[in-house]
Amino acid sequence: xxxxxxxxxxxxGCGGASYQTIKIVxxxxxxxxxxxxxxxxxxxxxxxxxxxxxxxxxxxxxxAGNVEVLAYSAKLQVDEHTRDRPEASQDLELNRPIELIFxxxxxxxxxxxxxxxxxxxxxxxxVGKPSPPPAE
Length: 136
Description:
Helix content: under 10%
Mean pLDDT: 83
C-alpha cells in the first residue's frame, strides 16, 4: 500500500532538493493497484509507489519540480464482451503541497473547483455496447 511509503526518490542525484507532498485520494469504487510518480518526460516510470483501495488516501514526498503521476485502475467489465483497465495521468509543477483526487468519468469530486491545491484526475471509463435483444 501507498501508506507504507514515506519517501520516493523520483530524481536521481537531487542532493539538497526541496521536497513537496502529494496527497493521493482514490474516490473510485475500484482498487488502484499501480501508481507511479516520475520526472516529467522520463521514459522509465520507475517502480510503483504503491496502491490504494477505494476511498483510501495516502501521501508521498517527492523532489519539487515537474513530475508526472500515472495510475492504473483495476480491470473492469465494460460490457458482455469487453474488459478494460483504465488509466489516468496528470502533469504537475510541484512548488507546494498538492492533493490529487482520482475519480471516474462523470463524477468530479467536490472541492476541486476553485482550489489550486486540489486537482481532480479522471479515469475515463468506456461506455459498453448494449446487448442485442434476445432472438425469438
